[in-house]
Specification:
The complex is a heterodimer of chains A (about 375) and B (about 450). Chain A contains 11 helices and 14 strands. By secondary structure, chain A is α/β, with parallel strands linked by helices. With about 450 residues, chain B is an alpha+beta fold. Chain B has 16 helices and 14 strands.
């Protein structure tokens, strides 16, 4: 009995300690997206997209509230914003971090975003992107089909919804890693706000933490293939003066960095892909499939090489060739300096093998 | 003749003292009408008595009868009379004849542990019938039944049954000693015997199986376990029992391999759900909503929006209702029982949620907890695990998910520390005799 009383007393005391952690989820405001812009009077303007939960969810009925606050730092802005709402902010579901275009043009995107890397309740699997025209506009956009606040952005980024070849999602942890690692430059997808939807079709490549290069949608698709072996791509080619569209069903990209003594360093890519024809202005079945395969291979090769050379000329390396180089050499810290010397002179070679799976129709 | 003892018993109206006279000599009969069968008295005493001429000849008749013994001159007949003997007094000499009226020896249908296509009958409430069932299903010379009288007043007849060639002698010595040391006035059921032979007062998880199934009894006998069969109850105690015995149903031997393995997995999942789900609900709703997908977190928040109380209050409300419903439908007469479930089901289903007392997700949690608890085949274990969720909820209230994980760890540690008659509670099946011909006992 004595022991039981003691146990009860200890449990009772523990109850008193636990006070601050206990908060029911209906007393929390879930922050779905955080936007960072340049403020008019202060360096930061933080916009928070707060989900308003409702028992019934219907398409287009997503309810949310946007709170904006300007302050010297992000942390300060969040603290000031707390006085504008009735419930406690919960960043546990902050799925999206949007950086305004103007902010990304003028600022380095490393230490200025420190709050996100340090804050304990922001999950490192949040997605990042650059908002056009600014972060607040993206955050305030309400797509027609949205059933739950923020779903319109979360679904494409997590690839649960649409699987677009023009979207290269970047997680917060991945961004931090690319920033801190030597040998891979970070990139961020661009989210354009439209009245009732979003357009996410290209990426921005950063050098270090500064914006350097913006890719076109087509280049983004090729970048997606090169960096992530993303198999869903579409490709147009002319077959006997008629347009034929091919779509990828399988893709594998691998590469090797060769540094022969005395010779030019070379990055040798090996690409194997499987394609189907999706849209053809002429019958394909009776044509030589080997020819078609060669045609697609040549087209892919040209596009990929062009993009790689573009990266090389701009001195950026979002694919992580430098990281690969460092991982396969044994010179310690000197490796990275060596790679920086090599990279501008490196020669790219590309071997593409394509298998044509079918014409998509029964003869 | 102990006249005093007879007078003491004569205050009961079902006690008879009769004198028979065939014209040549007289005998006196003492018996309880409620304990003795008149047929036997008629056949073994009255009929031969009519035909014999001398007291000496009748004495020979009695000596040759089955179940008839002569008694010591000054012995107290009370005990024998209470056990269903007829005492015959012939010229001052006394004999006792066993003429018991059978108790409830009907074999019932198995209702507590049903199988789909296995044997359908259970044990009976009569101990001799039960022993008959066991002997018939296990016709082996090695089957030993040791008789015990349990309870100072009730003197409940019981047998310790085991297979001499398979049981571990130390275990049998152990249980024999424990049975002899039982010091209660009345012993009425198998579960009570388990409580009486357990050393500690604070008992939670059962370490002996209670079963009404003869097939389970003989499978366990063949595995070298012992049974305690008790008069007046259709349940036998089976030990040593480990955790896995409580999660196995007899259907596991009667169905195909893939089916039974899937069902066993389902039961373990059920055990996990019934223990942790309410605690996880509290932990996730009040501490760590980020482990869900955002979509679910939002709809959960939406369903909780009408509930003004903290999550654990609604958990306790719902769990109280469901436990009350379970207990009520268990204790009520069968006809009222079904009404109680219907009424309770209506309340739990819709009204509680519409009243803003609980969220709709909590109703799903409650029913999942109740239903998955029924997956456990042995009732003693399912009762024990019904209790397990409450300490976990308390831990979840105080420490969130961490508390639940630590609590589960503690429960596992506790179960690991248990031993059932020397057998570790979480013992695996490795090396166990494959008595059912099933693969689980293959030696490795």
């Amino acid at each position: 009995m004595h022991r039981a009383a003691k146990t009860l007393a200890i449990l009772g005391m523990a109850l008193a300690f636990a006070g601050c952690g206990f908060k029911d989820l209906d007393k929390r405001f879930f922050v779905i997206a955080v936007g960072i812009d340049e403020g008019k009077t202060a360096p930061y303007k933080v916009s928070l997209k707060l989900a308003i939960p409702s028992p019934k969810t219907e398409p287009g009925e997503a309810k949310f509230q946007v709170i904006t606050q300007e302050a010297e730092t992000i942390a300060e802005a969040v603290r000031l914003a707390k006085s504008k709402v009735d419930k406690e902010f919960d960043f546990g579901h902050a799925q999206l971090i949007v950086i305004g275009k103007a902010f990304s043009d003028d600022h380095e995107l490393g230490h200025s975003l420190d709050w996100f890397f340090r804050r304990r309740d922001i999950q490192m699997i949040s997605y990042m992107g650059i908002g056009v025209p600014d972060a607040e506009a993206v955050i305030k956009t309400k797509p027609l089909s949205e059933r739950l606040p923020g779903n319109g952005l979360i679904l494409p980024f997590s690839k649960e919804g649409t699987e677009s070849p023009y979207l290269v999602p970047v997680h917060l942890f991945d961004y931090y890693r690319m920033w801190k690692y030597k040998g891979k430059d970070p990139f961020l997808p661009v989210i354009k706000s439209e009245p009732e939807t979003f357009i996410i079709e290209n990426v921005v490549i950063l050098k270090g933490t500064k914006k350097k290069l913006e890719l076109s949608p087509d280049e983004t698709s090729i970048f997606n293939q090169l960096a992530r072996s993303y198999p869903r791509f579409a490709m147009k080619a002319q077959v006997q003066n008629k347009w034929v569209t091919f779509t990828g069903t399988r893709l594998k990209v691998s590469y090797k960095i060769l540094t022969p003594a005395g010779g030019t360093p070379e990055v040798r890519f090996r690409v194997s892909a499987e394609v189907e024809s999706e849209d053809a202005q002429r019958p394909l079945f009776d044509l030589s499939w080997t020819q078609l395969e060669r045609l697609v291979a040549a087209e892919m090769k040209d596009q990929m090489l062009a993009l790689l050379r573009k990266f090389q000329q701009n001195g950026v390396d979002p694919i992580g060739l430098g990281l690969h180089y460092r991982a396969t050499r044994h010179q310690g810290d000197a490796e990275y300096g060596k790679w920086q010397e090599i990279y501008p002179e490196v020669r790219f070679s590309m071997h593409v093998q394509v298998r044509f799976k079918g014409t998509g129709v029964i003869k | 003749m102990d006249q005093k003892a007879v007078e003491y018993l004569q205050r009961s109206h079902d006690f008879r003292k009769e004198t028979l006279d065939n014209g040549r000599f007289k005998i006196e009969l003492l018996y309880f009408t409620t304990l003795c069968k008149p047929d036997i008295i008629q056949k073994e005493i009255a009929h031969p008595f009519l035909l014999t001429d001398t007291p000496e000849a009748f004495e020979t008749v009695l000596s040759s009868a089955l179940f008839c013994k002569s008694m010591e001159e000054d012995a107290d007949p009370t005990e024998s009379l209470l056990e269903g003997f007829v005492v015959i007094v012939l010229n001052g000499k006394r004999f006792k004849l066993r003429a018991p009226k059978p108790g409830n020896d009907k074999i019932g249908e198995a209702v507590i542990e049903t199988t789909l296509q296995g044997p359908q009958s259970a044990l009976s409430e009569d101990i001799d019938t039960n022993l008959m069932i066991l002997r018939r299903r296990y016709p082996s010379a090695d089957l030993v039944a040791e008789s015990f009288k349990l309870g100072k007043v009730s003197q409940t007849q019981s047998y310790l049954v085991y297979d001499r060639s398979k049981a571990v002698p130390q275990v049998i010595d152990d249980i024999r000693g424990k049975l002899q040391r039982i010091d209660a006035d009345v012993v009425a059921s198998a579960g009570q015997v388990e409580a009486l032979i357990t050393g500690t007062k604070y008992r939670w998880i059962p370490i002996m199986t209670i079963s009404e199934r003869p097939d389970r009894a003989i499978f366990n006998l063949a595995q070298g376990k012992f049974l305690i069969v008790l008069d007046g109850t259709p349940f036998v105690l089976i030990a040593p029992a480990v955790f896995f015995d409580f999660v196995s149903a007899m259907d596991d031997v009667y169905q195909s391999f893939v089916v039974t393995r899937s069902l066993v997995m389902l039961r373990y999942l059920g055990i996990f759900v019934t223990m942790t789900l309410p605690a996880l609900y509290v932990a996730v709703v009040s501490y760590n909503p980020e482990i869900f997908r955002v979509q679910f977190a939002l709809s959960l928040a939406g369903s909780r929006a009408a509930v003004p109380y903290p999550s654990f209050v609604e958990v306790f409300i719902m769990l109280f209702l469901i436990e009350a419903l379970l207990e009520a439908s268990l204790r009520l007469p069968r006809y009222i029982g079904s009404t109680a479930t219907t009424v309770g089901g209506l309340i739990l289903g819709q009204a509680a949620q519409q009243a803003g007392l609980v969220s709709s997700v909590m109703i799903i949690v409650t029913s999942a907890v109740a239903i998955s608890n029924f997956l456990i085949p042995i009732t003693a274990m399912s009762f024990a695990l019904r209790i397990a969720k409450y300490p976990l909820i308390v831990l979840a209230i105080m420490f969130g998910l961490t508390g639940v994980v630590c609590g589960m760890f503690a429960v596992t540690l506790y179960a690991c520390s248990l031993k059932s008659f020397g057998v570790p509670y979480f013992r695996m099946f490795i090396g166990e005799p494959a008595v059912s011909g099933y693969k689980e006992g293959d030696p490795y």
